[in-house]
Amino acid sequence: MANYIGIDIGGMSIKAGIVDENGKILCKDTIVPRVKEGQDAIAKDMFDLCENVLAKAGMKKEDIAGVGFGSPGTVDTERGLITFAANLGFNKFYLLKEFGKYWKVKAAVGNDANCAALGETKFGSGQNKQNTFFVTLGTGVGTGFIVDGKILTGHKGGGSEGGHICIRMNGEKCSCGERGCWEAYASATALIKQTEIALQKNPDSIMKECLENGKVTGRTAFEGARRGDKTALKVVNTYAKYVATGIVLLVNVFRPEVIMIGGGVSNAGDILLSRIKKYVSRHCFGNAKINPVPQIEIAKLGNDAGIIGAASLVME
Ligand SMILES: [Zn+2]
Predict the structure, then answer these.
(1) How much is the pTM?
(2) In this structure, are strands 74-76 and 81-85 parallel, antiparallel, or unpaired?
């Protein structure tokens, strides 16, 4: 059985895992990237991380058929280039060339949300589907599209930025500098802001009992809603509509068979999912009577999606 290494690059940690051809992680390890030392130092860190995880698993380099990397930011997959990733200070980082100095192995790099989309499609909730859409609701909103079995990257990897489609003209300010982006309404960051505002206006809401260390989190409104609190229910209903509005826009363009929702907020489960499903089936083009409405599921791979997805890039 062939084995691969998947590397999930993040600003706080870089995770590597040995993944078999069935998408199972055999062994994992993590390092903190030396962001201050520059991108070439990080390439060496990633090689060291591979050696560590191999040693941990009692395997050799020869046992690995390929190494895949998932990186935040804009990734030019053809040139093995991370064009830009703000958190890690990557700027025109030829990752595959740098990594190749340490280990000559089949390698590929992709955007992290695209990798997660591929991983979820191969081994998670999108199995056996050719057209899927993955959205992650976290600090931001990341999207990945699999179209006819392939990752959609757009020209030089600049596409697939679904988080920045505009759902409201002159709306909330987004981290990208524009206004009204989906991310500014549907991210965990936005949900926390919406919850805080609701709580300020309604200080008697049960949500005040749902704080964690005195703070509103992405769970506060869902917890309040489960307890039947009106203010919390309103926050949840509005937030679900924001998420669903972006989904409808993208469904009308790509018409996937399945939509997979991941990221921290997806842990809310059915209280969120049921509302999204209802809105999408009502509002997507042709509605349910004419076109089949995509299945909507919570992503299955959780935190491992990054590693499994990155490894999927080099699986044949
Ligand atoms: Zn934006």
Answers:
(1) 0.92
(2) antiparallel
